[in-house]
Amino acid sequence: MKTVVIYSDGACSGNPGRGGWGAVLGLPDQQVIELGGGRSETTNNQMELQGLIEGLNYIRDLTFDQVIYYTDSSYVLNGVMKWMKGWAFRGWKTSEGKDVANKEYWQLIQNQLLYFADKKISWNYVRGHTGVAGNERCDEIAVSFSTGRYVPLYEGDNSNYSFDIFKTPLTEPIPDSSFKKKEVNESAYYLSLKNGVLERHKTWVECEQRVKGASGAKFKKVKNQNEEEQVLKGWGYSNK
């Protein structure tokens, strides 16, 4: 069976702000292709989706039987596996009647998946920053593009790559992204990153006191852990 392996990831500095996406593909001929790109004004979720879109677009004209896809984005996986069908049925409205966020990205993915209807696609979740080589490399590419840093993209044989892309990584159950309920139920708080040290603050006054006048300090208001993870990824901060 001819198999394509795809890892993808996205990052954003500011969310919204300057963003980047990365994808690493293992092709049936044992070649590895790294892809990446950026956008001046975007969001983390849009870049997560763009990584998947670019990966699927690259393999469109290849001959293969199955795709094994890995990402650390529960937003992407739950959208593809649980939400997208209902959104499309309701005319790209949520169950509350609101426009679906990032509708144009989801519509493009839907069309891509229709094109691959005769292929088997395995959707897999890997937790970010846990040493999964493919995910770590995609994160590096995405963050580099989101921050304007140069990153060389590999294209060559799997035997000469930094890891075996066809080796099955440790996967986990897809987290339940009931983020809409979390945003309602959880209190907003503030993140600050100063001299490489992350702190959380209950009030803007506390956050402002820490970052005001500090060169290179970053801060952001978030509503829940899901948003926090997205912001930290955009900052290139590893909370290991």
Write the layout of secondary structure elements.
Layout: E1 3-13, E2 17-26, E3 31-42, H1 44-58, E4 66-71, H2 74-89, H3 103-115, E5 120-125, H4 133-147, E6 155-157, H5 179-185, E7 189-194, E8 197-201, H6 204-211, E9 218-222, H7 225-235
Parallel strand pairs: 1-4, 4-5
Antiparallel strand pairs: 1-2, 2-3, 3-6, 7-8, 7-9
Helix pairs in contact: 1-3, 2-3
Give a structural overview.
With 240 residues, the chain is α+β, with helices and mostly antiparallel strands. It contains seven helices and nine strands. Helix 1 packs parallel to helix 3 and helix 2 (74-89) packs across helix 3. It is globular and about 60 Å long. Residues 179-186 have low confidence and may be disordered.
Which structural category fits the helices and strands?
Answer: alpha+beta
Q: Largest sheet, order of strands side by side?
A: 5-4-1-2-3-6
Q: Please compute the radius of gyration using only Cα atoms.
A: 18 Å
Total beta strands: 9
Q: Share of helix among residues?
A: 25-40%
Order of helix and strand elements from N to C terminus: EEEHEHHEHEHEEHEH
Q: What is the count of DSSP helices, taking H or I runs of 4+ residues?
A: 7
Mean pLDDT: 90
From the N-terminal CA to the C-terminal CA, the straight-line distance is: 37 Å
Q: Beta-strand level of the residues, as a percent range?
A: 25-35%
**Which geometry do the CA atoms define?**
globular
Main sheet, how many strands, which sense, barrel? 6 strands, mixed
Uncertain segments: 179-186
